[in-house]
Write a structure and sequence with these properties.
It is globular, with a radius of gyration of 18 Å. It is mostly helical. The two termini are 33 Å apart.
Length: 204
């Protein structure tokens, strides 16, 4: 079952939702530029670029990502961008939601990469339990990189302090566990794409 099947929406409805959310992101970029709130513009621009990656993969490699997964990525991006307006400062639970949702995306990418490499190599046979551990460790490592970037971009990205960092890691782990327990089946198409790329690189 794909994520599109689970969401219960038609492909056309999901594509429309993605386009509307992308227009919203573009609007937030424009708002940030006009009001000289460049942190919002930068956050929105980065988020918009991420949502356009599936289309770039389709043009470059002929890989059509499940539209439900594209929608999930886009939702994660707009949740984060909208939060940078004021929601992060007003509601602690909003930051927890965005980190959980974003962590499922990072976990899915990490799992798909790892699983593709495992299937590509005859010398690697990993127990399912270890795959789950890998997902959590991968997400936590990605979280460390993100926190370092936040400090490095202190003038662009707001840093809220040590307590916020600890909370971020907790909910990053929650998102990773959600993906490890329930979500790996939804990234089967991405596993196949990564595996084909590995095979192509090996043959080239």
């Amino acid at each position: 079952m794909t994520l599109s099947d689970r969401l219960g929406l038609s492909d056309s409805q999901e594509r429309l939702a993605v386009r509307l959310l992308q227009f919203a992101l573009a609007g937030l970029v424009g708002y940030g530029l006009v009001t000289m709130r460049f942190a919002i513009a930068a956050t929105g621009g980065f988020a918009l670029a991420i949502t356009l990656l599936p289309a770039a993969l389709r043009r470059e490699y002929g890989y059509s990502m499940d539209v439900g997964l594209v929608l999930w990525i886009t939702v994660a991006m707009i949740l984060h961008t909208v939060g940078s307006l004021w929601l992060y400062e007003w509601f602690q639970w909003y930051d927890e939601i965005t980190h959980t949702v974003s962590a499922t995306i990072i976990a899915g990418i990490g799992y798909a990469s790892f699983r593709a490499f495992e299937l590509h190599s005859d010398d690697i046979d990993v127990p399912p339990a270890f795959r789950a551990v890998f997902i959590v460790v991968f997400v936590l490592a990605a979280g460390v990189v993100w926190e370092v970037l936040e400090f490095a971009l202190g003038g662009v990205v707001t840093v809220y302090g040590l307590d916020d960092i600890v909370t971020d890691f907790v909910f990053n782990a929650v998102g990773a566990v959600i993906m490890a327990v329930w979500g790996t089946g939804y990234v089967g198409g991405l596993v196949g794409f990564f595996r084909r790329r590995l095979r192509s690189d090996a043959e080239g």
